[in-house]
Design goal:
By secondary structure, this protein is mainly beta. The chain has one domain. It contains no helices and six strands. A six-stranded mixed β-sheet has the order 4-3-2-1-6-5, with no helix packed on it.
C-alpha cells in the first residue's frame, strides 16, 4: 500500500536539534503487517525510513512525517 504525503527532510536528527533541508511530496510505502509495519520512501535514489514527529514534543520543527539524513547521504 502507498499513500502520497508531504515529508519533512531533516539533517542529522538526534532528538534534540536538527536542520530542515526541504519538504518533499512522495508516496509512502510500507512493509510488514500489524505492529511490525515499517514505512519508507525513495529519496535521491536511496531508501529512507519515515517516522512521525509530534508537535507537542518538538515545537521548533514542523510536526508530521519526517526522514533523517545522515551526513554524506
Amino acid at each position: 500500500m502507498s499513500v502520497q504525503a508531504n515529508i519533512t527532510v531533516l539533517q542529522d536528527f538526534d532528538g534534540f536539534k536538527t536542520d530542515v533541508v526541504e519538504v518533499v511530496s512522495r508516496k509512502i510505502q510500507s512493509t510488514g503487517r500489524g505492529y511490525k509495519t515499517k514505512y519508507f520512501i525513495s529519496y535521491k535514489g536511496k531508501r529512507a525510513d519515515v517516522f512521525y514527529l509530534n508537535k507537542k514534543v518538538y515545537d521548533g520543527i514542523t510536526s508530521g512525517n519526517c526522514i533523517s539524513l545522515k551526513s554524506g547521504f
